[in-house]
Request: fold
Amino acid sequence: MAKLNINGKLRDVQVESDTPLLWVIREQVGLTGTKYGCGVAQCGACSVHINGEVRRSCSIPVGSIKAGDRIVTIEGLSANSSHPVQKAWAALDVPQCGYCQSGQIMAAAALLNKNPNPSDKDIDEAMTNICRCGTYQRIRAGVHMAAVAAAAKDGRIGAPADRKSKA
Reply:
């Protein structure tokens, strides 16, 4: 049995230690916002936060999760889709098919936690998730919009007008 802190709730799950965290989240816990895409940690559809770091849950065995680790899924990012990234995604109509977007949103939120004012280059380097529909320009615009919204919400002065990298 494993005891996992998922979205702030302690959960006891009966699984083998080599079971991927993705399947525990989806099948045992019933949180289906985290998606299966490739199964080899390449596409990012399964992205979650573990202790604030974006991680690909399809490749993480439950046995490697420590008792104090905090796992956050798309369902736990905000109770009512009010996170700045979720709001920006909706405002800009970022998704096309939407399948990869929970992973994209989790990656963007982790990026903004580390770098609240990312350049285009920063975004391109951090956002390695695959979008088969090719909405990368809207994803980048969404990250910028979320950064500005988060700065305003936190009372920080808005980001510099030129966020674009010169590289």
About this structure: Residues 136-153 form the longest helix (18 residues). The domain at 84-153 is CATH 1.10.150.120 (DNA polymerase; domain 1). The beta strands are 2-6, 9-13, 47-50, 53-56, 70-72.
